[in-house]
Amino acid sequence: MITKLSVVFLSLIAVPFLNGCNHAETETHHEMPKFEATTPFHKDVSLPRQYVSLIKAIMHIEIRALEKGYLEGIFVDEGQWIKKGQPMFKIMPKIYQAEFQKAKAEAQSAKIEYLNTKGLADENIVSPNELALAKAKLDKANAEVRFTETRLGFTDIKASFDGVMGHFHARIGSLLDEGELLTELSDIRQLWVYFNVPEADYLNFRMEEGDKLGETVQLKMANGKIYDHPGVIETIVGDFDNTYGTIQFRALFPNPDRILRHDETGTILLTKHYPNAMIIPQKAVFEIMDKNYVYVINEEEKLEQRLIHIEAEMTKLFIVSDGLDVNDRVLLEGIRKVNPGDKVSINLRPPEEILPELELYTE
Fold it and tell me: For helices 128-153 and 94-122, what crossing angle results, to 10°?
């Protein structure tokens, strides 16, 4: 049987134990989490904007048969670099040669007739009108000679400029119609590169940086490598495309090694400069309803949810245009573990200590 003295003794033991439990609970409740934080920093940044592009030869023409006939000869090959005036194709010339010889004979006959009439006119045997008719007949015959000679020349097709041959659309022995396509010829020593710029970027260029004419750009080729020779923006082509909301820019690129070809594709890299840009790590930012926020630690060591505006993105970093001050302390970790108004303990790390852990692409 438990005596009164035993109850008193057990009570004295229990009181310190309960007080210790309450004290432990109080300490756990008031212990603040500790997270890393940093401050924004300023730096001059240059970032390339990318635009899909199409490459065009400055001189690119179709070579067509100017006369009807059989294709008698091909003197070049597909993909060959040829010189201005170099023979390319020959259409069977026999009919045109015969017409030329006939015209020359008729011109010679007309010339003899004219000379005889002129001798008679000088002796007043025939009237001046007969002499004028003989002269007109001679002129017509000479014109026919020039015409048939020109048509004969059409059977020899020569390069009109230095360039690279395209695909053959006819083979030796083919019966050609007048105007039938034979091949294409492209001068690729210089190239025009067309790229479509969204309306928003175009307006930003005009309002903030000018129209970009004369600015140097780079070309990223289809294999991901940067083309060795930079280009220059020459013009803004035409009007806006209402379907896609873009306008076309044209840049000129040299092609001394003839690496690039007509109708090739690539990506234009147009550099945008952000002087004295405010930068924060991407991991400090979280998104709510398509808006971007960070947690800022105020003077009371409590968290404030701050709306920010991101102007550009780099690897692991954001350029912020609005919402932060360079002295703001921004939470770097534990974003999913805290709420606005929470009091936290922070390990404030300077940006220069954090940057080596991140990748920053600047000039």
Answer: 160
